[in-house]
């Protein structure tokens, strides 16, 4: 699989190119939007990782051009933005991006998202995630439980979003640590457990139906468990 990386910051571009190559991808690197668009039009690109803030031709313009041409309109695009603003995320998705990541991000999450897009083709991240009475507005970063707004910190939202978008999958503490904190924690640390406890106080404790469950010796899972005897 060949990934086109359009990133003007030299250190970031070199780091991502090296890391993606080590992860098994063929990588073509463009340092500006015009060069990136030209490479995409040559063909042979399976996915584009597109930085928004580019000199000359910015990421928005590149994305619009990709989606406006038959030869490139179906190429999955994941855009990277350093601006964690709702209107930036909405604009990117409306222009046709398939997914986005806000800088700084965990490299392992970038690779996981790229592999998902390559397996499934152009799949947009759901704007709303619903599990039982839980509703997560991914774009606007808002959470409601049984119709009641729940106020979360940025870290709590990231943890909940990770658990919810992988509903039914047991996530290990090390995976959670790498994707939410971009760190590797010692196995005996209680950092993850404490973070889950704080999240449960807001998401589960005030409500009869529990959604975040512990799998002893394995990790945590977000799901609606069947009623006893069902």
Automatic annotation (TrEMBL):
UniProt keyword annotation of Ribosomal protein present: no
Keyword Ribonucleoprotein applies: no
A GO biological process held by the record: regulation of DNA-templated transcription
GO MF annotation terms: phosphorelay response regulator activity; transcription cis-regulatory region binding
Domain of life: Bacteria
Domain OmpR/PhoB-type: 126-224
Pfam family, one: Trans_reg_C
DNA-binding region: 126-224
Residues with the 4-aspartylphosphate modification: 51
Keyword line: Cadmium, DNA-binding, Phosphoprotein, Transcription, Transcription regulation, Two-component regulatory system
Xref: SMART domains: REC, Trans_reg_C
Ranges for domain Response regulatory: 2-118
GO cellular component: cytosol; protein-DNA complex
InterPro entries: CheY-like_superfamily, CusR-like, OmpR/PhoB-type_DNA-bd, Sig_transdc_resp-reg_receiver, WalR-like, WH-like_DNA-bd_sf
Protein name: Response regulator
Record organism: Pseudoduganella albidiflava
């Amino acid at each position: 699989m060949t990934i086109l990386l359009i990133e003007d910051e030299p250190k970031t571009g070199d780091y991502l190119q090296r890391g993606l190559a080590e992860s098994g991808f063929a990588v073509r690197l463009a340092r500006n939007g015009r060069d990136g668009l030209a490479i995409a039009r040559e063909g042979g690109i399976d996915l584009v990782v597109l930085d928004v803030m580019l000199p000359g031709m910015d990421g928005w313009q590149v994305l619009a051009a990709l989606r406006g041409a038959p030869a490139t309109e179906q190429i999955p695009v994941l855009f990277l933005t350093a601006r964690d603003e709702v209107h930036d995320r909405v604009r990117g998705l409306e222009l046709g991006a398939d997914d986005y990541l806000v800088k700084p991000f965990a490299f392992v999450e970038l690779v996981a998202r790229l592999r998902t897009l390559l397996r499934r083709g152009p799949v947009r991240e759901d704007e709303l995630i619903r599990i039982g009475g839980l509703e997560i507005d991914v774009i606007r970063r808002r959470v409601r439980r049984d119709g009641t707004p729940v106020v979360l910190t940025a870290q709590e939202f990231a943890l909940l979003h990770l658990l919810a978008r992988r509903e039914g999958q047991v996530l290990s503490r090390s995976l959670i640590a790498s994707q939410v904190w971009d760190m590797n924690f010692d196995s005996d640390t209680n950092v993850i457990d404490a973070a889950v406890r704080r999240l449960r106080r807001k998401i589960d404790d005030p409500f009869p139906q529990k959604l975040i469950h512990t799998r002893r010796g394995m990790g945590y899972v977000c799901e609606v468990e069947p009623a006893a005897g069902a």
